[in-house]
Amino acid sequence: MARFRPFVALPVLLLSTILIQPYSRAQTFNLLHTFTGGRDGAEPYAGLMIDRGGNLYGTALGGGCGYGTVFKLTQKNGAWLFTLLYCFTGSNDGNAPVARVVFGPDGSLYGTTQFGGGNGCAGNEGCGTVFRLRPPVGVCKASFCSWKEAVLYRFQGGSDGANPSYGDVVFDQAGNMYGTTRVGGGTGCGGNGCGVVYELMPTGGGHWSESIIYRFTSGQDGAEPVGGVIVDSAGNLYGTSYAGGSFGGGTVFQLTHSGSGWVETTL
Hints:
Blueprint: H1 5-26, E1 49-50, E2 56-60, E3 69-76, E4 79-87, E5 102-103, E6 109-113, E7 129-134, E8 148-154, E9 162-164, E10 170-171, E11 177-183, E12 196-204, E13 207-215, E14 229-231, E15 237-241, E16 251-258, E17 261-266
């Protein structure tokens, strides 16, 4: 039987080569934009979001007005055009957008900044924000027309959480928003709290109400949920924590809504 093995393997090898080669040839690298560290931004930490028209949206951690930017890339005549949508000032509007921006049910862009928003946290620079961006009304005649930013929530650094995580915010079918903060929420983890999962509910008139659906303890449940959460069709939330758990190396968790609140299960 051994003498037949090369004849069996050869067609498999040829088939694999035929299948792989077209894909290998199709992979090309195109540089869309090089950040200068100036007005366009610097250190694009997160990934990109794409709309139905193929336009790309992203954030840069620094640059712009000094505290990060939100930008758009549009393909036109074979080239990619960079448009600055918003630059953060580091004050009440936020500082350091380390997560992606995502589209909400209303078509606006939503995201978070890790710092800024007011007083509190390290250096009194603010504990982070959740923001919304909408395009300007009417035709823009200037070289730069900033999108209109609205801060939906400013973290206080106490029981409500602090320093929103690197993960995206997500929406459920009812239009409620969910996210995580890396620290805050309690007194554990060195006194700063071990992080939270929060919910923002629209209350009308452009206002949002924040509620904490889970505070991590650094026990079996984990600590520092730096990656955000995802939501399934039933409204359950799933995410990861960077630390904690049985071996101190982090956890994968599920949050299920019940009549009395949310129940956390370490998966």
